[in-house]
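USER: Note each token:
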Amino acid sequence: MRSGRAAGARRALACLADPTRRRVFERLRAGPMAVGVLARGLPVSRPAVSQHLKALKAAGLVQEKPDGTQRIYAIRPEGLAALRRYLDRFWDDVLVACQEALENEPVARD
């Protein structure tokens, strides 16, 4: 992975380390939403949710679209794909290690 992509994935992981940001991000799974809708039921203020969205946007995980006086936020598929590619590298390493362990395991004889 090129260092730019890895850096983007690290920014995304660091951003999602915050539990409130994760909750905001997870709520966007249901589809695009305005800040007011996202803020409902969260233990932080609407301006705080806006700040979390700003961080998620800077990390490349969400995008915003103006809609009249509101901003509608949605998950940015490209940002999520970059994060997934980064994490998949670790999964690939685990699968290779598992395969090697199985291939090197002595065969039981009856």
